[in-house]
Amino acid sequence: MSTTQPGKTGINTEDKQVAIIGFGNRAQSLVRDFRASLGKKIKVVAVADPDTTAAKERVAKMGISARIYPTAREMAEKEHSIDGFLISSPDHCHLESFQAIARFNKPILFEKPLEGKEENFYKLAQELLRYPAPVLVGHCMRHAPILQKARELIEQGWIGKVNSMRFVQNCHYGDVFFRSWHRNSATITSLFLEKATHDFDIMHMMNGDNYAETVFAFSKRYKFGGDKPNDLFCAECPEQVECPESLLNLYTTIRGEDLLNVEERVGRNKCVWAKEADISDDEMCLIEFSNGVQGVYVQTFYTPSSYRGRVYTIVGDKGILEIDLGEYRGKIEFFPRYGTRNDRMVYKFDYLGKNHYNGDTHLVRNFLGLMQGKESPLTTIKAAIASELLGLAAVKSVRSRKIEKVDPGKYLE
User: Fold this and answer.
1) Which secondary structure element, helix H or strand E, spans residue 145, and what is its range?
2) What is the CATH number of domain 16-139?
3) Amino acid 10: pLDDT
4) Cα–Cα distance for residue pair 317/115, rounded to 1 Å
5) Which fold has domain 142-224+278-355+380-411?
6) pLDDT computed for residue 118 by the predictor
7) What per-residue confidence (pLDDT) applies to 348?
């Protein structure tokens, strides 16, 4: 397999004009990556966001000369020279966002998950599979060099036949999901859909894109949620000095961040003990894939920042790969089945200052390649659908307390 990352070809062709739907934290992060990874090859010319005041402030702060619209439909009516779209509106608005610009038939960078509402997911999946232009789904971890290297080692046969996988995500920043619209099942369904689909996608990738077939899941809320008002903001709470999860304590005292910068993260500074916080913060599942490989997945959203974050263990009949993604640095360790106690091979990766283990760099380069007509999406619509079908089946299993089938049906035929 070639280790060349998406986006390495065709960088010196003409600039591309991009429109963005939803200019929140994720969109701003990707715009920074446009600049850092592509120079001036992508120009943001239009932004659609219902909070036009905040959008204007963010656009100005980033030095972008973009036209601002309150809705994607209004933007679509007035913009006629767009080369590609970034859809990064809240999860539960993705179907509506896509339908507003579908007639353009232009390449799309579509932030994952495809849809936050279960009932909208199936409709969007059908429409995307019929869409004539290329769609790159934002499973940015699939682009990360550390994970591409791990896949290469597996494909080269270093660990032999893959038999099982154990993926763990310890999310020390899990409080952020309970400070915003993410905390309610009406908007994201579950963190199995919103967050775990990153890891499910990598499970599929490491398994040669043999997708999950059955799942048995558990999901509970142990830490967050409570009886506080839904409109209570952390910075306005009289208990912020005593509360261990307050921005004042968790971010300023413990993590050393500037409180004003934290408070500027719009939509991420509400009280984590709010009544509407009904999603789970500790989840796990057992998975069987179509080729017989077994998997275990665990995600916890209140772990210490000093503890290890994402760790993937892939077991083969000739050895084991352990991928410790870390936060700023990661490593792959290979342990041969027939080696001595000290036999191992280590690959180290440094991605300090880069997002998603440096995956975003190659994600946006792949997006540019799509608009230039020189590349195909690394994360396809079908791959994204497969990870979300697994997430939805896990949710169903939690509710039924039974093993559930992950039925791809007509979506993956």
Assistant:
1) helix 145-155
2) 3.40.50.720
3) 41
4) 38
5) Dihydrodipicolinate Reductase; domain 2 (3.30.360)
6) 87
7) 97
Sheet containing 84-87: order of strands: 67-69, 42-48, 16-21, 84-87, 108-110, 135-137
CA–CA gap between residue 65 and residue 274 (Å, rounded): 38
287, containing H or E segment:
strand 282-289
- The model's pLDDT over 312-327, given as tens digits with 9 standing for 90+, comes to 999 999 999 999 999 8
Closest by alpha carbon to 292, among 188, 208, 351, 189? 208
Distances 95 to 85, 117, 280 between C-alpha atoms, Å: 14, 9, 24
Neighbours of 103 (CB within 10 A): 8
Delimit the domains of the chain by residue range.
Answer: 16-139, 142-224+278-355+380-411, 234-263
Residues of the chain with pLDDT under 50: 1-12, 266
Cα 378 to Cα 148: distance, rounded to the nearest angstrom: 11
pTM: 0.92
**pLDDT score recorded for residue 30:** 95
**Residue 235: what pLDDT?**
84
Domains 16-139 and 142-224+278-355+380-411 equal at CATH topology level: no
Q: Give me the amino acid identity at 167.
A: F
